Amino acid sequence: MWNFEGQEHIYRLIQNSMNKTRLNHAYLLLGPEHIGKSTLSLEITKYIHCLDEKKPCQKCQQCLRVNEKTHPDVVLVGYTIGEIREIQEQVSLSPFFSSSKTFIIPNAENLTIEASNALLKILEEPPNNVTFIICATDEQYLPTTIVSRCQNLELYPLSAERIHNYLIQYFNILNNEGKEEAKLISKLSKGRLGWAITAFTDTNFLQTRNHDISLFNDIINGDMAERFLLSQQLSNNFNKNKNSIYTTLETWLDYLRDVMLIKTNSEELIVNIDKEIILNELGNKFELKTIIESIKVIDKASKNLNRNSNPRITLDNLLIRFP
Fold this sequence. Notes:
Blueprint: H1 8-19, E1 26-30, H2 37-49, H3 61-68, E2 74-76, H4 81-90, E3 101-105, H5 113-124, E4 130-136, H6 144-147, E5 151-154, H7 160-170, H8 176-188, H9 193-201, H10 205-221, H11 224-240, H12 242-263, H13 276-285, H14 288-306, H15 311-320
Parallel strand pairs: 1-4, 1-5, 2-3, 3-4
Helix pairs in contact: 2-3, 4-5, 7-8, 8-9, 10-12, 11-12, 11-15, 12-13, 12-14, 14-15
């Protein structure tokens, strides 16, 4: 039994391939961060190695060792040329505990050019008893030569309702407050189950998100001096913890998108369902053109920071151009 919610199209494909003994030598799992690629790669690995007729049984030694990440024939691969060269030697060795070997490469977009070239050589002439499971957010971040030698499997976002029901069942939520929190997080998740699970178990998540929204409201109600001061604080934080600033920008982006949805009479699609009153007030305050421009400015700032642009200048330009 698959221990994973959703992505049934991938289960069926793997099952059909195994039934026909035509398992591909390399699979490329594609989807946004935290949608569940790493978890699914382990489920596929268990299916490949499981000894039971009803795969994956989750109980045999093969499945248990994959779960515990102690299976000698399942290798988690890094991104450097040295780590890829190591598996160049390993692929030619016979399996120790199973009839085949599986190599998992998470976040393959982080592979160096040298590592990508070395991996390509392996994929061009793979042994019959070896399977590669490669994970990436988008195929555009990988060399086309690697993509063309894999069977692409795209993970689709789940509905908010399905994630909501999963959280209630998985965490055995019985009280109304917990159910409302699960509903909010399922909306904010954008269909990413892994993200939803992480957010629900993070006791500081909603507090941080509410702080980021309050910060946004302060910015649009503040003067330029206050904006420059905040820009300095954010740029200092960026140098200490980049991910926190990316999270803040993503929160602002979702917030403004909700305002845009309200302005276009699509209230049923908003994700910040607990902030609907404030979102309506912002919708009445600003023109649609201004909201769309602000969304573009945040998106551009996030991309520029990711390209190692000067954080202070980038954030100055962002806050100056806010409504």
